[in-house]
Amino acid sequence: MSNYKSGFVTLLGRPNVGKSTLVNKLIGEKIAITSSKAQTTRNKLKGILTTKTSQIIFIDTPGIHKPHHLLGQKLVNNAKSSISGVDLTLLIFDSNEEPGRGDSYIRDFLVKSKSRFIVVLNKWDLLKENEKMIRIKQYNQLLKNQSILFQPLSSFTGEGCEELIKIIEEFLPLGPMLYPEDTISDQPFNILLSELIREQVLNRTKEEIPHSVAVNIEKLDKLKRQGKGELTAILATIVVERKSQKGILIGKGGMMLKEIGASARQNMMKLIDGPIYLELFVKVVPNWRKKESKLIEFGYQEDS
Asked: How confident is the model at residue 177 (pLDDT cuts 50, 70, 90)?
């Protein structure tokens, strides 16, 4: 294994360009939650791809946006700090859209930081054939026609993903595996579980709810059942900022909360590979996104 390579690769881009979906596709497992809502990702998450020739540690980051509260500021700061010390940054663009001011801002940030990066044009499958060369030309102009490598792909279909992995390997230094071969994420187990619940909240609620929600795993127990094997019992609290949001999440006769729990439990069973008992509660904590103590309590700390 003298030619083996390993290293860190950060994914950077605006909200909703498909960074988390791409990480899941590259790893081949669901480790990051996805949603059509912007700003879905809140934690820097490492997805680990191990092959016969390399180990690539992908760092999925929150989308860079204009923050409107303390939580938003911490997320943006963490995303920006994620390019420090990595071997390569993937600048992810939504190729289904023309370049915008947000793309220019991230470009300027990367150029100023002198980071080594390549461009990934995601959602390539959504473009018509006659639009593809036009879009590449537009993004070339955005990057001021520098000799930067472009890789079109689709994180939905997988088109272009194998080519991207081969390109990344060229940038990695020689080195051993940094994680055990069967590791696909370094995220604490409680965080992975809480994110699966938050994903279902995002997918089932409208704009009033999604960004006001945090999920805290209160209790996680392995229970032995006679003749049936172990059962994982999980107690989780969904935190919102207003009483009206609590009512929406619970729903008429508790139906919304039951639907959230049922869908989250299905994904948890795949993660744990065993039966799950999940109990959910909803709690109101006014303006938690603006309070340092609550951000720390719910696991949203700024990287030092």
From this structure: very high
Closest CA to 261 of 230, 298, 222, 235: 235
Q: Which of 26, 36, 37, 110 is nearest to 60 (CA)?
A: 26
Six-digit token pair at 37?
Answer: 């809502």
- Answer whether 120's CB lies under 8 Å from 151's CB: yes
Quick one: pLDDT at residue 72? 56
* Concatenated DSSP letters of 57-99: EEEE-PPP----SHHHHHHHHHHHHTTTT-SEEEEEEETTS--
Read off the tokens for 78.
Answer: 């963490």
Q: Is 253 left (phi over 0), alpha (psi -120 to 50) or beta?
A: left
Residue 215 bridge partners (DSSP):
238
Retrieve residue 211's tokens.
Answer: 């960004």
Task: Name the band, by pLDDT with cuts 50, 70 and 90, for residue 38.
Answer: very low
Q: What single DSSP character describes residue 290?
A: G
- Taken in order of first residue, the domains within the chain and their CATH numbers are 5-171 (3.40.50.300), 189-297 (3.30.300.20)
φ and ψ at residue 262, rounded to 5 degrees: -65, -45
Predicted TM-score (pTM) of the model is 0.74
- What is the CB-side half-sphere exposure of residue 196 using CA atoms within 13 A? 25
